[in-house]
Amino acid sequence: MNKKIILLLLLVLFLGIVIIISLFCGVDNSDPSQAAVIIWQLRLPRVLLALLVGAGLASAGAVFQALLRNSLAEPYTLGVSSGAALGASLGMLFRLSSIYTTVFAFIGSLLTIFLVYTIAARKRFSNSSLILGGVTLGFLFSSIVLLIIAMVRQEGISNAVIWLMGDLSSASPQAIFLTAVFVSGGILAFFLLGRDVDLICLGEEKAMHIGLDVETIKKILFFIASLVTAACVSASGIIGFVGLIIPHIGRFMFGPKHRVLFIAVSLLGAGFLILCDTIARTVALPLELPVGVITGIFGGIFFLGLLIKAKKW
Amino acid sequence: MVDVKNIYCGYDKKEVIKGVFFSVEKGNFTGIIGPNGAGKTTLFRAMTGALPLYKGTITYRNNDISKISARELAKDMAVIPQIVSVPFSFTVSEFVFMARFAHLGRFQAPGKVDYDAVDQALRSAGVAHLKNRDINELSGGERQMAMLAQGFAQSPKILLLDEPTAHLDIKHQVAIMNILEKLNKERGLTVVVILHDLNLAAEYCNNLILLNEGKIHKKGGVNEVLTQDVIEEVYKTFVAVDRNPVSGKPYCRIVKGNPRVIRGAAQQR
């Protein structure tokens, strides 16, 4: 137990260092008065958003993997991101400002959550109904997004492509507020439901025999994890990898008990995404790369190394 | 303690259990036996509250089981199914600890009672030395023992087990049954267990329920249920029933060959 606490403290330290690096890394600016503006008004909101989105996606991913009892599950498995993408691309189609993109994306993901819930609720909220309903809806919405991109050959639509790859540069105060509310509320709820999530891992019938009201808890977890995902995606586009792999790294370091795991993956996810975003905006100056690409490339290489070296898996 | 009153249940309109009555008294060691497809697991799932009934009622201490919350029921009843698959690498002690869920409030940290219950459960099942091992890296026998420990850690008054000895060697079969008998005798734990092995059932149970085609074919003490005629009628298999020389309990001997021919040979002798 003490070992885990020390490990958690090290993660907090890691997060702190990453934040400081990110705030002071970037285009060199010799004028000190301008430097302060860049740090506090441009970089800080971006770091905050990366922190929230990284923590939100990683913890929601851990919930979905337990809920669906499938280590390939991630926050986007049940179509929430595709619904958000549909909303966002519609917003961009009508050339609305970026705050409306967030609002439209959020509405799109709420619609998806509602539809998946309605389909699954008819089948006693079974895993197969959740997965099949969610994946199919996700596919449907993604196809419509691609249809929009293919048909509308206007300038604004390239924004949609960037958005689809994940983008933290448009960190508006509203978007930060939205994610802050949902992510912090969500992680708190996950933590309180940690023991319930452990039981869900044993399968529905065994969980029930140990005393869990399985269907209700599954619905609650689905709702909260989906809302967290919806807020993250609406604020920052579809950033991949974090929600899939960070939970595995968390379990590798801390074991599968979910109370500790949720804290760990939140810290890991936040640090990881801030780091990736720092790389995304500095590695190819003056060009800025989409952060979703960096999470995949750097995260992928790192995780492959871990996978090959570690005795686990 | 548990009263099953004229129940009908099954899956998707297919009725598997058709009008079953029986009672499990406190402190009983009851075996449910019967051929494959007789409805043993279906009856078992109905008794645990996992399978809704078409007709009839099952009560636990005179309360309808379908109206007791999962949490309340779990404080008294532990259920050990045939298989529990765990997707992640929980350690044995983490796995066993989960059983304390119903005894803990949402905001309550586990206390001495809980740690003691887990320690005792690990020791009773003989898996204390495995407590830091990954549950998914245990052998079949060790894993079954860990599942048993999880059941004990729930501090149940009644324990329901679905074929706990399936696919295990005789060492583990006997170990499991000995533990159950010990808890039954020493702590008055009521045990209901599905068994395929008739001789294991004869040796340990004091009540048997023989199920066939969704109905109770015979119930009662081991000497009434395990007779040559009854077994041949239900299993369509000839067995020679005699006594276990040590315990004096009925012992079913399997005989090879065509049932009709051997039956003829046995009658000639």
TrEMBL record, chain A:
SUPFAM superfamilies: ABC transporter involved in vitamin B12 uptake, BtuC. It is found in: Cell membrane. One of its GO terms (molecular function) is transmembrane transporter activity. It holds the Pfam family FecCD. GO terms for cellular component: plasma membrane. Keywords: Cell membrane, Membrane, Transmembrane, Transmembrane helix, Transport. Its main location: membrane. The chain crosses the membrane at residues 45-68, 99-118, 130-152, 172-193, 220-246, 258-275, 287-308. GO terms for biological process: siderophore-iron import into cell. It is a multi-pass membrane protein. InterPro entries: ABC_BtuC-like (IPR037294), ABC_transptr_permease_BtuC (IPR000522). Belongs to the binding-protein-dependent transport system permease family. FecCD subfamily. This is Iron ABC transporter. It comes from Candidatus Taenaricola geysiri. The lineage of its organism: Bacteria, Pseudomonadati, Candidatus Omnitrophota, Candidatus Taenaricola.
